[in-house]
Amino acid sequence: MLCSPTQRQETHDAPNAPANDPTHQTPVPRTPVRLNRARLVWLFLALWLALFLWAFIAARGTAPTGDSFLRGINRAGVFFGWQLAALLPGIAAFVTARALPRGMLRRLSCVPVALLGAFVAIILSLILWARLNILLHPSVPHNAPVTAPAAPSAQP
């Protein structure tokens, strides 16, 4: 039972005491709000979702810096940094929910880990695709003849 400090504290009558005698009444101890395992999982999931969404918002709101090919690569660093921050409460929710009985909350706690696995799989597949694309379709053949550099043009 949660009571605010302004509320009157309930009392129980002591055994074998007259009902109208206030000196024999003992106060009921207030129990603090306990953070049980299910509430803790919900807290971790809410924190994970907030950080997960913030990664997209922060990356979109970051001004691109750099030149040429690497212009805007700082956005990727911001995105992955916030995703890494979101990973901690996501894994904490997953680990904490393992002790819960099977149910919706336990399945829901798998979402952060599943999205982490999806991100890793996407990144690895992009790297593999880029490497295989270079190996299978090289832009310059390895046995192509080398040509001489162009002669400098004469200044009139």
Could you explain the architecture of this structure?
The structure is a single chain. This protein is mostly helical. The chain is 52% helix and 4% strand. The chain contains four helices and two strands; from the N terminus they run E-E-H-H-H-H. A two-stranded antiparallel sheet has the order 1-2. Helix 1 packs antiparallel against helix 2 and helix 2 packs across helix 4. The longest helix is centred in the last third of the chain and has 26 residues, at 111-136. The radius of gyration is 32 Å and the shape is elongated. The model is unreliable at 1-13 (pLDDT under 50).
Shape: elongated
Task: Write down the Rg.
Answer: 32 Å
In terms of DSSP E residues, the strand content is under 5%
How are the strands ordered across the major sheet? 1-2
**H/I helix tally:** 4
Q: Gap between N and C termini, in Å?
A: 95 Å
How many beta-strand segments? 2
Average pLDDT, all residues: 80
H-E order? EEHHHH
Structure class: mainly alpha
Which stretches of 5+ consecutive residues score pLDDT under 50?
A: 1-13
Helix-residue proportion: 40-55%
The description of the largest β-sheet is: 2 strands, antiparallel
Summarize the structure.
The protein is mainly alpha-helical and 156 residues long.
List keywords for this structure.
4% strand; 4 helices; 156 residues; single chain; mainly alpha
Topology record:
Blueprint: E1 11-13, E2 25-27, H1 37-61, H2 73-97, H3 104-108, H4 111-136
Antiparallel strand pairs: 1-2
